[in-house]
Amino acid sequence: MTTFYFVRHGETEINRQRRFNGATVDSPLTKEGVEATERLAEQLKDVPFDLVISSTQMRAQTTATILLDHHNQLDAGALTTDSRLIELNLGEWEGVEINSVSDHPEFDHYMQRPDLFDAESIGAETYDSLLTRTNEVLKELKQKYPDGTILIVSHGIVLRTLLKTLQGIPLAKTREGAPFANASVTIAHTEGDQLLFDQWGQTF
What we know:
- The radius of gyration is 16 Å and the shape is globular.
- The protein has helices at 13-16, 31-44, 58-69, 107-112, 127-144, 156-166, and strands at 3-8, 51-54, 79-81, 149-154, 185-191, 194-202.
- Strands 3-2-4-1-5-6 form a six-stranded mixed beta sheet.
- The chain has one domain: Phosphoglycerate mutase-like (Rossmann fold), CATH 3.40.50.1240.
- By secondary structure, the chain is α/β, with parallel strands linked by helices.
- Strand 5 (185-191) and strand 6 (194-202) form a beta hairpin.
């Protein structure tokens, strides 16, 4: 059985400014983002992780480093990164204010029906591409750590899309419900070919 701890990075300045925080933009964590990550770190400090892996983006690496700085067995040197865990690339919308494109014909599809989202129209990555690369990571980790405990630090759209589809939810419905909060943790374990969820989007 492989156990996964999926963490969304702490709140960033771009998050607070209500701008798209995609694959090619980044910003530091806010003070509140750091504090929320430190609270999460207290909950995870004794978990015997066999691997800590994050997106290559700064906000994810910063979050992972804070978690490791508070860990009782590991330190920041234990962090590895994988570019396949980066956020969805939103092309022309990268870094722009969300409300500024609310009248774009693809906005409602992006927000509510990702299966209909015409990524090419704004030079963005498709949701199918996101799922392909992130599922590859999980498959490799399950094979390499069949009895391991793994901490993955990634991004909101990545985790929402990946984890909901792994629950059997169709892509069309993955945007329903609340998004993962910043500095939240979702815990799941493998059972055969299935991924079963023990905790969903918990914050502290």
